[in-house]
Each structure stands twice: as C-alpha cells, then as structure tokens.
Automatic annotation (TrEMBL):
This is SDR family oxidoreductase. Keywords: Oxidoreductase. It comes from the Bacteria. The keyword Transmembrane helix does not apply. Belongs to the short-chain dehydrogenases/reductases (SDR) family. InterPro entries: NAD(P)-bd_dom_sf, Sc_DH/Rdtase_CS, SDR_fam.
Amino acid sequence: MKSFRGMTALVTGASSGLGSEFARQLSLEVSQLLITSRRADRLQALSKEIQAKSPQIKVCWFSADLSCQKGREILCDWLTAERLEIDILINNAGCGDYGLFEESQFDRIQSLLELNVISLTYLTRFVLPQMIRKKRGIIINIGSIVGRKPLPTCAAYSGSKSYVHAFSEALRLEIEGSGVTLTVIAPGPLHTEFFYRASRNDSEEKPFVPPFMWVPLEKVVHESLAAAKAGKAFYVPGFYTRIASLLHYLTPSFFLKPIYRMILPIHSRNDSSKKNSLRCSLPLQ
Ligand SMILES: NC(=O)c1ccc[n+]([C@@H]2O[C@H](COP(=O)([O-])OP(=O)(O)OC[C@H]3O[C@@H](n4cnc5c(N)ncnc54)[C@H](OP(=O)(O)O)[C@@H]3O)[C@@H](O)[C@H]2O)c1
C-alpha cells in the first residue's frame, strides 16, 4: 500500500465536483497540492479553504483551459518554470454532452474530445518521464461506467471515456515495474455540475438513474484514493454501482435496447421504427 506523504499532487478540474473533493482529501496527506481548472475565483477560494485547514502544506492554483493546446502548454510551462515535479496526477477535468449525436454542435464535441482525451493524454505524457526517472508516481485517470459500456445519448462522451480506459490499460502494462502506477476510476452518476453542463439547454436533464446508484462524492474519492494506493488497475466506487455496472457491462446491447428506449430520450425515431418493426415482425437492430 503506497502512501502519499511528502508527495506533490496535481488535480485537474478542481474548481468543482469530484476534483474539489480530490483536492480536499489529498490535502490531508500530501506536502504540496496544485489545483487547476478555468475558474480562477473558485480555485482561489478552494486553495484558501484548504490552506486554512492544512497550514503545513503548500497549495498553488493555476487557471488554464485544458481544452486547447495553448492552455495545456501554459500549465506545463508554469510547472517547469516553478520546478514543480508531480508525484500524483489526478486527470479529472472532463465534460459531457447529453443528447442525440446528430443534433450535437460539433464545436462542443471537439472541446469534449480535447478535454477528456487530449488533455489527459498530454498531461500523462508530460509527467510520466519525471515519475519514471524518480521511480515513483501515481496516476489516476477518471473514466466512467459509460466508458466501459457505451450509452446512447452520450455517444461522444462514452467514446472519450472508452479511450481513457483503453489508453490507461495499455499504458499500465508498459510502465509495470517502473515504480509508477496507474488506476482508472469509473464512477457512476454523481451529484456535481456535470449534468447541468452536459445538457444542451442549461437544464439538469439527464438519463434516468436508479437512486441506489448515486454515490456521495466523499465516498467516491475516499475509495478511489484507497484503490490507487493499493495499486489497483480499475475501480468502480460504490458497492451497488459496482454491481449495476458489472451487470450492464455483461448484458449484450441487444437486450438493453428496450430499456434504453424506456429511459432515454431516443423515442422520436424509434416510434416510427417501432411501427416498421411491428409491420416486418423483425427484432429492432
Ligand atoms: N458527474 C458524474 O455523474 C460523472 C460520472 C462519471 C464520471 N465523471 C467524470 O468525473 C470527472 C469530474 O466531473 P464532475 O462530475 O466533478 O463534473 P464538474 O463538477 O462539472 O467538474 C468538471 C471540472 O472540470 C473542469 N473543466 C471543465 N472544462 C474545462 C476546461 N476546458 N479546461 C480545464 N478544466 C475544465 C471544470 O472547471 P472549470 O469550468 O472551472 O474549468 C470542473 O472543475 C469528469 O472527468 C467526468 O467525466 C462524472
């Protein structure tokens, strides 16, 4: 079991939700905490809050837009200029886009891929050589249960998180024995700003989620850090979410289609395809 004592941690997407909670819980153990996202006021308030509770550690914040290459470079240039070497990287910043893909705005999809895929890959590439040289490091990549089994109405998001899972699994095998570990966390639904931001009309619109699958942020982060310390490759926080995600993963998509049609806003086209399918007596495909 690894310890975080004396380490420097970088948390992306720390201005809200899961990222803020990672920062709070890490601050109880690390000696230096670096937090980043775009909203400087939130980062400043969080670093003040953490510094007040943990005066023994050093907290620094840096505002950067990780969905563009310039933002990613500015962050890494700052780390280099300040000689800040990262021992723990929490690749948490991420966003969604909820709705039919054919109705999506491509610039939104592009930013999503830039943030969820490119930024995570870029930061991992940036810190990994330092970690391997020092023979110590922990990377936590935040995936999702829909990265394991894709969900209609979240096509690009599911695809981006599938990348996180595949990339992380391959990289973990590459770095085995180097002293650096990589853990993918696949959370289920969380009460954060995520759904509001993923919605295309500034609402809390989201897929139906059974109440037992919502896991409190504190628990998600606590279990995630324990999984990373134990060197686990993959972890789904929350017992019921773990079971539900496993069942979802093992069930062939064919059997899930009727359920998706009941709980997801994909009815319009399916209403007409339903008529056709009844007429043809063929299974929906
Ligand atoms: N909520 C869920 O149900 C759920 C489920 C599974 C996985 N996840 C994953 O968990 C992670 C955290 O999400 P969350 O639920 O905590 O959502 P959240 O509250 O919306 O937090 C997202 C964080 O990412 C940052 N961010 C967004 N766009 C950015 C950009 N262009 N550049 C830099 N930072 C950016 C946001 O800060 P700024 O806006 O200040 O930049 C914010 O701090 C994401 O990877 C998400 O995919 C969430």
